[in-house]
Amino acid sequence: MSTSPIHYIPPSRGPQILSSKIHRIIASPHSQVPVGTIPTTTKRTNHWCFYLSTSEMTCVALDCQPSHTVPSSVLVGGSKAYIIISELSAVGPDALLEFAAEVDGRDGLTVGDVVDVMVRDGREKYEFDTDGVGCRFWATEMLELLLRARILVDGQQVERAKGMVKRLWPEGTDLTLDRGVYYQ
C-alpha cells in the first residue's frame, strides 16, 4: 500500500468513488471482536464503519482500520490507521444495526466532500492503541466534524448516533470508548 493513509478499493475507481453523490450517512457497528491478543480475554468491542448511501442499492464504505504494520508515532505500541474507501452493493454483511443521519440536501453532495472535510481536519491521520482498538472514538469525532461542517444537518441524530457508538452491540450495554490519537 502507498504511504497515504487513504486507500481506495479498487484503486483505479478512486476518482469515480469521490464523485459519487450521497443521500445519507449510515453508522454501523459490526459483529463483536475480542480486545487484545490474549485468546481467553473477555473484553469485547464492535468495529464501527460509515456507509455513504449513493443510491437505494449502493453505498461507499468509509472505514478506519488499524494497519497493524505501520508503527504509531504517538501511541507506544500502536499502529497508524488506514482509511479504506470502497464501493459496496449493501451495508457490510456483519453490520448489526444501522444508524442513519441525514445529510445536507444540496444537490451534488459527494463522497469527495466528506473526504475533503476529513482531510482538512486531519482525521485521516489517526493511530490505534496496542490492541488495534479506537475506531469508535474516531467515529464519534467524525460525526461531530461532519455536523460542524454542515454535511450532517440534524444535531439530534448525531447525538443519538454518538450515544449508540458508546455501547456494545447487540446487547446495547455501555462501553467506554478506547481512544486513539491523531498525529501531525
UniProtKB/TrEMBL annotation:
Protein's name according to its UniProt entry: DUF7770 domain-containing protein
Protein source organism: Aspergillus bertholletiae
Q: Which residues does the UniProt record annotate as the domain DUF7770?
A: 40-183
Q: Pfam families under this entry? A: DUF7770
Organism's domain of life?
Answer: Eukaryota
